[in-house]
UniProtKB/TrEMBL annotation:
Coiled-coil residue spans: none
Organism this protein belongs to: Jezberella montanilacus
Segment forming the signal sequence: none
Pfam families: CoA_transf_3 (PF02515)
Protein name in UniProt: Crotonobetainyl-CoA:carnitine CoA-transferase CaiB-like acyl-CoA transferase
C-alpha cells in the first residue's frame, strides 16, 4: 500500500482471507507472527490482559501512543479479557473454538492450566492449528525456563559469535531472534494449514526461540563434530573470506564491501588502481585471502580512507562490486529504493495522522499483503468482537465490563 489508507478501507484480499486467528501473545515474537498473518489477510483477534500487552510500553512514544504498538499490532482487532476469571477463560475458549489458528507464547503449561490446552480444544475444533512459541519448546528438560530472544541467543551460541574477538560478546540492538522465530512460526502455520487441507485436522506448531537462533549456526554444527572446529567472534569480518568487512571512509562513515569471488576481487582492485594485487602471495586466491583477512582489510582500508562513502559506492557499483554505505535511519528515508519497493508506506492513524510503517514482507505478485489500519487501542474492539463473533448482547457485555472480566476503550 503506497498511499495513505483510511481506517474504513475495504477488507483484505490477501491469500489468508477467510482464516481466523486468535492471538494470546505478548511482547514481540508472538505478536510479530500474528501481524504477518494479518498482513496477508487473516482476521486476527488479539487478546490482551487488563494491563495491556507490555509491548505497548516498549519503543518510542508520541504522547501516550506507542509507535511500536501502532505497527506491530496493525491489521488486528484488539480485545481485553482477564484470563484470571472464569468468565474470561470462557470467552477466550469460545473464540478459540471458532478459529482456524491460535497463536500463544505463554510458558509451557500455562495454556493447560487455563483449560485452553490443544487436546481439549481440538476435540471440539479438530481443525485448529495451535502455534506455541516459547523459549525452549514444549518438551525437554529446560521447557519450563523463562526465555526471551536475547537469553536464547546466548544459549544457542549465537551471542558468542557476535562482536569483536578482543571484547565481550556484543548485543545486536534489534530483536532478531524474536523476528526470526516469528517467521518460523508463520512458516509452520502455513504448512499446518496445508496439511489440514488434506487431512481435515490441525496440529501443534512448536517454535522454540533458541532453536530459531540455533538454526543460524548451521555451518558450524558439522564442522565442530567432524573436525573439532570451535567458532569465535570475528568482528565485522566474514570468516574465511576477504575482503568482506566494514571499511572507514574519508568522511567518517563506513562502507561494507564484499568481494567474495576471484572475478569480483579483480574488479575491486582494478577500481583501487592496484590490479597487481592479484599476484600478491597473500591475495592470489579466495582461500589464500581467507587466511590473510587482516592483510586484505588493511589494503582495502588504505584505499577507502581516501574517498567519501558515496564516491566509493558509485565507483564500485559501476564495476559491479557488492557495496553499501552503512545506512542510518535518515539514509533509509532518503533512499529511492525503499520508496520504490513500498517499504515505507504511510497509514492513517486516528490521532497521529499519516504514520510510516515498515512495509509488508514478502512481496507476492498475485495476492500481496497490505496494511489496512494501524494497531488498535487497548480494548478497542472488545465490544464488537463479543457481539459479532459470540452473539453476546449489549446487556451481557455491559455486565462483563462492570465485573471487570472484559475491558473496552474508545477508538
Amino acid at each position: 500500500m503506497s498511499s495513505t489508507e483510511p481506517l474504513d478501507s475495504p477488507v483484505h484480499s490477501g491469500p489468508l482471507v477467510g482464516y481466523k486467528v486468535l492471538e494470546l501473545c505478548s511482547t514481540i515474537a508472538g505478536p510479530a507472527c500474528a501481524r504477518m498473518l494479518a498482513d496477508f489477510g487473516a482476521d486476527v483477534i488479539k487478546v490482551e490482559p487488563p494491563g495491556g500487552d507490555p509491548m505497548r510500553s516498549m519503543g518510542k512514544h508520541s504522547g501516550d501512543i506507542s509507535l511500536y504498538a501502532a505497527t506491530l499490532l496493525r491489521n488486528k482487532r484488539a480485545i481485553a479479557v482477564d484470563l484470571k476469571t472464569v468468565e474470561g477463560r470462557k470467552i477466550v475458549r469460545e473464540l478459540a473454538l471458532k478459529c482456524d489458528v491460535l497463536v500463544e507464547n505463554f510458558r509451557p503449561g500455562v495454556m493447560e492450566r487455563l483449560g485452553l490446552d490443544y487436546e481439549s480444544l481440538s476435540q471440539e475444533n479438530p481443525g485448529l492449528v495451535m502455534v506455541r512459541i516459547s523459549g525452549y519448546g514444549q518438551t525437554g528438560p529446560y521447557k519450563d525456563r523463562p526465555g526471551y530472544g536475547a537469553i536464547c541467543e546466548a544459549f544457542a551460541g549465537v551471542r558468542n559469535l557476535t562482536g569483536d574477538p578482543d571484547r565481550p560478546p556484543a548485543r545486536v540492538a534489534l530483536a532478531t531472534t524474536d523476528y526470526l522465530s516469528a517467521v518460523y512460526a508463520c512458516y509452520g502455520t502455513s504448512m499446518a494449514l496445508l496439511s489440514r487441507g488434506k487431512t481435515g485436522r490441525g496440529q501443534v506448531v512448536d517454535v522454540a526461540l533458541y532453536e530459531a537462533a540455533f538454526s543460524q549456526m548451521e555451518a558450524y554444527v558439522p564442522a565442530f563434530k567432524t573436525i573439532d572446529f570451535v567458532p569465535n567472534r570475528v568482528g565485522s569480518n566474514l570468516p574465511n573470506m576477504a575482503p568482506n568487512s566494514l571499511y572507514l571512509t574519508k568522511d567518517g562513515g563506513y562502507v561494507l564491501i564484499a568481494a567474495n569471488s576471484d572475478a569480483t576481487f579483480k574488479r575491486l582492485i582494478a577500481v583501487m588502481g592496484q590490479p597487481e594485487l592479484i599476484d600478491h602471495p597473500k591475495m592470489s586466491s579466495i582461500r589464500v585471502r581467507g587466511q590473510n583477512i587482516a592483510f586484505c582489510n588493511e589494503m582495502v582500508s588504505a584505499w577507502t580512507a581516501q574517498h567519501d562513502g558515496v564516491e566509493i559506492e558509485r565507483q564500485l557499483l559501476e564495476a559491479e562490486v557488492p557495496v553499501s554505505r552503512v545506512y542510518t535511519m535518515p539514509d533509509i528515508f532518503a533512499d529511492p529504493h525503499f520508496q520504490a519497493r513500498d517499504m515505507l508506506p504511510q497509514v492513517e492513524h486516528p490521532v497521529l495522522g499519516p504514520l510510516t510503517h515498515p512495509g509488508v514482507v514478502p512481496k507476492l505478485s498475485s495476492t500481496p499483503g497490505e496494511i489496512l489500519h494501524s494497531g488498535p487501542n487497548f480494548g478497542e474492539n472488545t465490544r464488537d468482537v463479543l457481539r459479532d463473533e459470540l452473539d453476546y448482547s449489549a446487556t451481557q457485555i455491559d455486565e462483563l465490563i462492570e465485573q471487570k472480566v472484559i475491558f473496552c476503550s474508545q477508538s
